[in-house]
Design a protein that fits this description.
Length: 161
Amino acid sequence: MATNTGAPPLNNQQSDGAQQSDAGVATPAHGGRRAVVIGILMAAVFIAILAGIVYLLLNNPSLAANIRDIVIIITALVLAVMSIATSLLLIILLYRLQALTQLLRSELVPILMDTQKAVRTVYGTTVFVSRNIAQPTIKAAGFAAGIQQMARAIGRKFKAK
């Protein structure tokens, strides 16, 4: 055993084998081992019970046959209930899919038509502005810039003489 030198223990371990949690309360360092041991004991008891049941069924074939028949009937009933439930869920799914399709047709198609109309309007406006406003303005600005440059060049020629 380690001797206590008065220094704080390393890794938050106390000298008695306990560990401090975040709240400052000491908890056992090996609490996980107890859960593992309990789990192993429960598994062993379960396996022992299963082995006992198998042993009893092997020694009493008529009881085993009755239990087998009951299990087959229960399995068939569960399968039938699951089939009915699955069929009902599929019918509900198809109904909801039909409702979604109708919603898309009644709501989405008109929205797309309005969007196409707006796009055509914007395109027409853009073409009109480009042809009737932008192009003439650009040509006039270019012509004015050319005249301005020509006037500067002529002005420099007269100043140079």
